[in-house]
Amino acid sequence: MLWICSATVWKLTVSAGCLILSFFMKGRLPVDPAWVPALLLGSGIVKEALEGLFLRFDIKADLLVALALAASLCTGEVFAAGEVAFIMTLGELLEEKTTEKARSGIERLLSLMPVTARLIGAEGERIIAGDQVRKGDLLRVLAGETIPADGVVVRGCGTVDESVITGEPIPVDKAPGARLSSGSVNQFGVLEMEAMADASDSTISRMVRLVKEADAGKSKIVGIADRWATWIVVAALITAGIAWIVTGEALRAVSVLVVFCPCSLVLATPTAIMAAIGNASRHGILIRNGDFFDRMALVDAIAFDKTGTLSAGKPGVAEIFCDESRLPRADFVNFLLSAESRSEHPLGKAVARMEGTHLPVESFELFPGNGIAAEVAGHRVLAGRPVFLKTRGMRENPLVERHASAAAERGETLILAAVDGTVCGFLTLADRLRPDSGRVVNALKEIGLKTLLISGDHEKAVAAAARSCSIDEYHAECTPEEKTRIIAAFQENGKKLCMIGDGVNDAPALKTAFLGISMGGAGSDIAIEASDAVLIHDDLGKIAGLFRLARRTLRTIQWNLSLSMLINFAALFFAVLGLLPPVWGALVHNCGSVAVVLNSTRLLKFPMEKNWRTAPHSPPGE
Description:
disordered C terminus, alpha+beta, 22 strands, seven-stranded mixed β-sheet
């Protein structure tokens, strides 16, 4: 594609020089330089028109252009032929650059599928290819390895990062009986699992199929000139024929065909889109498909993923509670911080990032899937699941338990802590919402969009996020397949939905949605490849402005079409009367192209920011 564009640019540059030379040196040279663009650029247009007519039985705008070129050359109006060929080729280049499809990212999605697996058989452990895993196989997964198939843990404990499937950033502890999904990563411990499905029917394989099917189902928007091509060609031929028959002047017929050429119609859409893309890029938004603004202007609703989109995507300490009648808060934090600093568990590492004073740790013991025990500055510290502390004989604390129940209702991950045999407090880990999340949702509602939250996170966390941001509708604990089904069901009623996501698990949803937007900073490469636009700096605050820009772009295109048609019909009127010869007909007609370009450039300075950022809103979640 790149070399084709480079060759076209080279041809256009040479042709532009020849047209300028032909205009100012007309009659002074032995051969008119306008023959260069007429043949160099016109031959491609004629070839495409004939192939479309006789091989594909398809009438497009280039058929009329080919007729105008042929008529101009037959009557000696070489400059008119060269000018028309130049304008049409320029318009096609702009249209090609704005509508070319980016890669789907399926290759990167396939790269997540495990290349190998550890199969446990009668002869011991051996390495096999990942695609050879069969239902019922016994597999071993070490720390740092990818789960090779959907299955269930039969032996061992581990901590698994399932964000690639669910989007949930907090790793999940797995014990015998727990389910595992292919593509997720074992971060800690050793797991032995039984495959519950063949590798070809794994979660990650189904995601690949979903992305392929959704990508194939998206149709391209046909250019306005090509949609009207049949009627334009018929009208042009009838009008030119009548002018020739009535007046007996072939030049009038040629003039009619020249002014009927849809040059400005071809430029109407791509110039506006390129200007809008330029504006968006200055605001940190990468537009990946040329029909993005056409579709965005038609969107009725917008759906968000939670983790990494509305939220930061990283677990952090959300709340610290300490019964200070038992222990000073500062000591409680220092004990917990010091104990967890020895942990290799992902949640322990999140706790260890708290601010505090590191105390000497005399001993440390990790209980995978349950908690830790440590001697810190002469004190016995236990932290982990409530059931873990209970089984270790820690004395209960009604005050702590009451506050811990309220935290659990918010869907946060709870870590209970005891010092010297008594429960003293707890802390919670959660994925905090972005500061602008509430304002973004309110701004989108102001412009008439329905808002949805579709997440793989658990019910309580998703419900809390939806309440905090005033989102109209939410769906929790969704697999990638369920996300696509929800979006497809919404769109079956004629609604058009825009999906905003960041994770691998969002890729099928981004493809299924009428429009997909991904987060460029926090987002995965696969989500970015599956989307139509990328927020390079993860700034959700740009979304409302992007919708306004899309609607303005659509209005600009409509004005461009109206303006070009008005000029074309005026030129047609004078051409029929014989007042506009072919050369001047081409010049006047192409004034419409210039007007279209100038009108489109106004989009470059369209203000995308609005004062909604300063509007009050409820705190975006705790």
